[in-house]
Amino acid sequence: METKNKFREIEVLPLINLDNIDIKVSTFTEKKITFKNEEQYREVIGKLQNIINKNPNAIVKTKVGNMQTVTTRIKSTKNKKKVFMFPEPNPVCIYYNSAIKHLENSNLIKKDLFEVKNGFNSNDNFVEFSKYYSEISQGIILLVTTLEGFLNQLLPDDIEFLYLEKKHNKSHIEMLDISTKIRKVVKHLHNIDFYVTNPTEYDNISLLVNLRNDLVHLKTNIKSNLTVYQDLYKRLIDIDLINISESVFIFINKIVPNYFIEKSL
């Protein structure tokens, strides 16, 4: 894998592109409406919302760029008159961008951390590393959340998968570890063994997942010098965040081409 010197930022895309789905439509009617004023507009929108209320399975679409997308509709519990309607965004894109922001911040803090003069009981080191830990832990957790969300999105509702001589349905597969999903389930669905095709990126992802697990579970390892998380902290200092995030980007776009679209500068 080519070493990159900067993080990627991606477009947050709608979750479902209706142009890619074969929906059986029995009848189709299209009407062009011209509104004379704001009051008439609100009246028509109110009538449309009433129709949607009476038909909870109705698919409401919105055009975003050249895409016909699905619109989600959320009614506030505390204020039932308040209704939010918008194209349903893809959470995986949001997780990835959120992870990148935290990782970018942690890289900036790491530079400051390395500029602090060495010394015993340095309060500056304590403050800077605490800030670094806060940012990098959030970035790593969100980056693995990106992977988990993407892998679960791949699963069709009717999937049946034979693993360790046991038949797994969708709910069973969702509970499998990430490594098994990447090596077994993805190969079953897309005939791609990422471990074989991209060994460097696979190793980076494994390192990322292991680090996330240790951050979340914080298993203690008390040493003779009475430090507890010294090994974990060292791994956080040593990790190459840009290449780790790049490996996630490469994996996702290899399985589903153009799933992530990099933002143009």
User: What does the main sheet amount to?
Assistant: 3 strands, antiparallel
DSSP, total strands:
5
The average pLDDT is 87
Helix proportion: 40-55%
Shape: globular
Q: With helices defined by DSSP (H or I, 4 residues minimum), what is the helix count?
A: 9
Radius of gyration: 24 Å
Low-confidence stretches: none
Distance between the termini: 23 Å
Order of helices and strands: HEEEHHEEHHHHHH
User: Roughly what fraction of the amino acids lie in strands?
Assistant: 5-15%
Structural class call reads mainly alpha
Main-sheet strand order equals 1-2-3
Oligomer: single chain
Describe the structure.
By secondary structure, this protein is mainly alpha-helical. It is built from nine helices and five strands, in the order H-E-E-E-H-H-E-E-H-H-H-H-H-H. The protein has a three-stranded antiparallel β-sheet, with no helix packed on it. The protein has a two-stranded antiparallel ribbon with strand order 4-5. Helix 2 runs antiparallel to helix 3, helix 3 crosses helix 7 and helix 7 packs across helix 9. The model has no long low-confidence stretch (mean pLDDT 87).
In short:
By secondary structure, this protein is mainly alpha-helical. It is built from nine helices and five strands, in the order H-E-E-E-H-H-E-E-H-H-H-H-H-H. The strands form two sheets. Strands 1-2-3 form a three-stranded antiparallel beta sheet, with no helix packed on it. A two-stranded antiparallel ribbon has the order 4-5.
